[in-house]
Design brief:
extended; alpha+beta; 7 helices; single chain; two-stranded antiparallel ribbon; 25% strand
């Protein structure tokens, strides 16, 4: 009967731990790259970081607020005290008190731009360095294990474009409110127009 000595078993277990850690790192790296790429990907071939390309049919924030109030009279709007270029969208709601009564409260929903709003959100990008996946997988968790070891200083990093900030478009606000069921598709048809002024795969994907 063949047996496996304890030292060999320990080596097998160590190798399994190393392989599992490497796979986990590579999976997390791939997820990181994918999530960052999705946030800045083009929309129907249109560069989402280009203001002119994303402007579409611009509306003033006053006009957007006026139309939204027609969709839902409970909406309330306030300019941000810390950033006057932003407006908070709130919902007037009721909250029960300990005494059994009700008090009106404002529930924050999302933010929007003050002034001129583009139809589609403009994504401001930045460069982010991520480890090269091919080399990344060759690290081990064991500091004394010389196998397949590469000095971390020798890692070749690559740059990807990722989300930095956003100039929010009014259709992005509509999507948020639609998902929260605070407005209806009929409201959008009546007060904004359902069909975008330009092809928008993102609008289609988020509202179908």
């Amino acid at each position: 009967m063949l047996g496996v000595d304890g030292l060999t078993q320990d080596r097998w277990r160590q190798a399994e731990r190393i392989e599992s850690a490497v796979e986990r790192r590579q999976r997390l790296l791939a997820q990181d790259i994918q999530s960052n790429s999705l946030s800045v990907e083009d929309d129907a071939g249109r560069d989402v970081s280009n203001l002119l390309a994303q402007m579409g049919r611009p509306l003033t924030s006053w006009d957007v607020m006026r139309r939204l109030k027609k969709c839902n009279a409970r909406f309330h709007f306030e300019y941000s005290k810390s950033d006057t270029t932003k407006i908070g969208v709130y919902l007037r709601d009721k909250e029960k008190t300990e005494a059994g009564g009700e008090v009106e409260v404002l529930r924050h929903i999302c933010g929007m731009e003050a002034g001129i709003m583009p139809e589609f959100s403009v994504i401001h990008k930045r460069k982010k360095k991520v480890a090269n996946g091919d080399i990344f997988g060759k690290f081990t968790d064991e500091p004394t294990d010389p196998r397949n070891r590469i000095d971390r200083d020798a890692v070749k990093w690559k740059e990807i474009e990722t989300f930095a900030d956003e100039t929010r478009g009014w259709r992005t606000v509509l999507v948020r409110l639609l998902h929260m069921r605070l407005i209806t598709e009929g409201d959008v048809h009546k007060h904004f127009g359902w069909q975008p002024s330009k092809d928008s795969q993102k609008w289609y994907d988020k509202t179908r």
